[in-house]
Design a protein that fits this description.
Blueprint lengths: L1 H24 L1 E3 L5 E3 H4 L1 H26 L7 H19 L7 H30 L4 H20 L10 E2 L7 H19 L2 H11 L1 H6 L4 H27 L1 E2 L6 H14 L4 H21 L7 H8 L1 H15 L6 H9 L1
Antiparallel strand pairs: 1-2, 3-4
Helix pairs in contact: 1-7, 3-7, 3-10, 3-11, 3-12, 4-5, 4-6, 4-10, 5-10, 7-10, 8-10, 11-12
Length: 339
């Protein structure tokens, strides 16, 4: 299993590199007759593709907390904000400290991403140690409060742009960095779940009292899952910031946390494949409904329904939760456990 996972990771990284090279170096002619790259010509679809990768990192990281460990966190956007602002501040301050070459600036970018992840992990540790003795709704409320604290601190921090937001970052993020980190996140989570620590996570999820009775330090496993989930959220935040090139505190509000939670629940809590698929579907679906609402050949009533895409989007989620409460791939893991 471990060898197959390593081979899959290496193949994924190679594919990410090849696809990224093709998107950035294959030249085509745009509508105006100008020579441009595939990524620039199809920038709208490229934006959706990168967003899918960012959401996969967020959802897989949160799945470690909500799915495999059985906790309920609503503060994932706060950790994403910590990583986004920390990495952005570093690249804005020290982006050309090692020189202006592509290698130097990219090296600083990768270091900034990792520092952003560590900053988010530190935030996760600060909120995790005192709060993870709580369970269920109480833990959700604490993590939600932490999300608002992070947002409030950023809104009043002048070096981070405060209410104006923070911009001016170089667009280092591309297809390779987004999906390479997504592949690494999936690899780490799957390897961890299939290790001794993974058995501890599952024991905490299945019956925390029984796990404590068996001598398992449940708080340690919950804090570890929380810190790792926060680290990956920080990485996703840094990738997001260096793709959009402008971030604002309102981009990391409560609704962003809910979006990630919905991806985990829809995909099936404890199912990495399902969560990845749900992240892709829930990223594409609003844009697909937006496209349908602008098709002139469709009946007016259908276009009107598509215009209210967020209502339709919500109804689709409700129907899916009623028909498959275990999520898209929730039953797969259950069958594997029974076998």
């Amino acid at each position: 299993m471990a060898e197959r996972s390593k081979i899959a990771l290496i193949v994924s990284l190679i594919l990410c590199g090849l696809i990224s090279f093709a998107l950035g170096h294959i030249h085509v002619t745009d509508e105006g007759g100008h020579i441009t790259t595939l990524a620039e010509k199809y920038s709208y679809y490229y934006d959706i593709l990168v967003t899918i990768g960012i959401n996969i990192i967020l959802a897989v990281g949160l799945n470690l907390v909500n799915g495999y460990t059985g906790q309920f966190s609503l503060g994932h956007a706060g950790f994403m904000a910590a990583g986004a602002y920390a990495s952005s501040w570093l690249t804005l301050s020290f982006g050309y400290a090692l020189g202006s070459s592509a290698f130097s600036t990219t090296f600083v970018f990768v270091v900034a991403l990792l520092v952003g992840g560590v900053a988010a992990a530190g935030s996760g540790l600060l909120v995790g140690v005192p709060s993870l003795r709580l369970k269920g709704d109480y833990l959700a409320i604490v993590t939600l409060g932490f999300n608002e604290i992070i947002k409030g601190v950023i809104q009043n921090a002048e070096p981070l742009g405060a209410q104006r937001g923070l911009g001016g970052m170089v667009q280092h993020t591309n297809f390779f960095w987004t999906f390479a980190f997504a592949a690494v996140t999936i690899y780490v989570v799957i390897s961890l779940v299939n290790s001794t620590y993974g058995r501890g996570f599952l024991a905490v999820r299945d019956d925390e009292i029984a796990a404590e009775a068996m001598g398992i330090n449940t708080t340690k496993y919950k804090v570890l899952a929380f810190v790792l989930g926060a680290f990956f959220a920080g990485i996703a935040g840094g990738i997001y910031a260096h793709f959009k090139q402008f971030i604002h505190p309102e981009g990391f509000n409560f609704m962003k946390s809910v979006d990630v939670v919905v991806m985990v629940i829809l995909g099936g809590m404890g199912s990495t494949a399902g969560v990845c698929l749900a992240a892709a579907i829930l990223t594409i679906l609003p844009e697909l409904l937006r496209y349908v609402s602008h098709i002139e050949g469709l009946p007016e009533w259908l276009r009107h329904i598509a215009e209210n895409r967020m209502i339709l989007y919500s109804l689709l989620l409700i129907v899916l939760m009623l028909t498959r409460p275990q999520g898209l791939f929730g039953a797969v893991n259950l069958k594997r456990k029974k076998a």
